[in-house]
Amino acid sequence: MISVYLLRSSRHLGGVERQLLDHALRLRDAAWQPHLLCLYRAGGEHPLVVVARQHGLPATTVPDPSPWHPGAWRQLRRLLTPHPAGILHTCDYRSDTLAWAIRRPWPQVAESHGHTAESLRMGIWNRLDSWGLRRMAAVAAVSPAWAQTLRQQGIAAGRCHVIGNSRAILPTTSPPPPAALPAPGPHMLFAGRLSPEKGLHVLLAAWPTLRRHFPNAHLWVLGPAPASTYRRRIRPHLRQPGIHLLGYQADIRPWLQAVEAVIIPSLREAWGMTAFESLSMGVRVLTTGVGGLPLLCRSAPHAHLVPAGSPAALVAGVQHILAPDFPHGTELGRQYCARPAFDPGRRFAEWLRIYESVLP
To answer: What is the reported pLDDT for 118?
Structure first.
């Protein structure tokens, strides 16, 4: 059996982790030998490691005290050195960079989910990641738009593939009850990192006009808020009437069930997890036509696209999607999520073709 070492750096059991678990289970069923390696900054075991072991998969937590600490690099070398061969499959900027630094004589492949511009430190990591990806045997981008960006960063076209995410990225547990939101609304949701490329500042600029059109409107802002220049810049605008900053939420489904619309004002987006999860639940989605979002929203009657960077376009878009006849509902969500393009088996087969192409 051929070993595949799946390396992931994260703090939560989120969408990418759920999809990685599905991938590892399919590898095992197909007579490959997966091993999950999870870089983790908190104490104890990574949540993905705990769940993977419950499924009988080999999984190891690799403590990662800080971004520049050599401990993770040393432990990964110790873990991988006894093994004579395998494929090293990485999933994010931190694991991409460490995989290259370990310098094992194995094929290295990466799935690239995009970059964030939330801080100067992340800008440095993005450059390191791009440098490491250029040296991978194969890179799979989550959308054609992101693949084009990676090719512009120097990744050879012959080694750059497109493999979108699947519905395995969605939560599999029953959704919690809807969030209790004050009447009458309407209620709108923004979910994502508080970083410039997500475009929250554009939505905040549109909010006074939206409140004039919808005096009882509420905007619920979900997502991690790291200390950054961007966070400090938008903080005064987050204090406008009707705006509620809730921070990171492990499960956004209670709000998806309660709000009338999801607003995605992104200026750049490799794929669009919030759009996918919202559309899969049948929620009205207003989004910008950037990156992977147009493809993700293609033929989705409950999605509406507007130009990026325009507060006026967001105002007009919200008025459009909140019209009584705009399509939405759980049946639309089920039909959307069931599309063949989101089939986990299809995604797995595409990864197997990449594995087989890089093996000696």
So the answer is: 64
Q: Residues, the chain, total?
A: 360
Within a domain: 178: no
Residue 287 is assigned to a structural domain of this protein: yes
Please report, as a single letter, which amino acid is at residue 253.
R
The bridge status of strand 138-141 relative to strand 261-264 is unpaired
User: Residue 232 to residues 125, 194, 226, 278, 311: CA-CA distances in angstroms?
Assistant: 22, 10, 10, 28, 20
- Name which of 351, 349, 346, 344 is nearest 87 in CA terms: 351
Residue 175 within any structural domain of the chain: no
| H-type alpha helices, 66-109 | 71-80, 93-102
Q: 208 in the Ramachandran plot: left (φ > 0), alpha (ψ -120 to 50) or beta?
A: alpha
**What CA–CA distance (Å, rounded) separates 328 from 236?**
33
Q: Are 193 and 223 in contact (CB under 8 A)?
A: yes
- In this structure, the dihedral spanned by the alpha carbons of residues 278, 279, 282 and 285, taken in order and rounded to 10 degrees, is 80
One-character DSSP codes across 22-78? HHHHHHHHTT-EEEEEEEESSSS--HHHHHHHHTT--EEEEE--STT-THHHHHHHH
Question: Rounded to 5 degrees, what angle do the CA atoms 136, 269, 331 make?
Answer: 115
State the residue for tokens 């207003």: 286
Q: How many domains does the chain fold into?
A: 2
Is 0.90 topped by the overall pTM?
yes
Question: For residue 94, what are its two tokens?
Answer: 């931190």
Which residues lie below 8 Å from residue 185, measured CB to CB, with a gap of 6+? Answer: 216, 217, 218, 260
pLDDT, tens only, 245-255 = 998 898 999 99
Strand partners, 264: 287
How far is 185 from 329, CA to CA, in rounded Å? 18
Between 100 and 174, the more confident residue is 174
Domain of 351?
3-166+343-358
What are the tokens at 203?
């939505």
Q: What is the pLDDT of residue 208?
A: 98
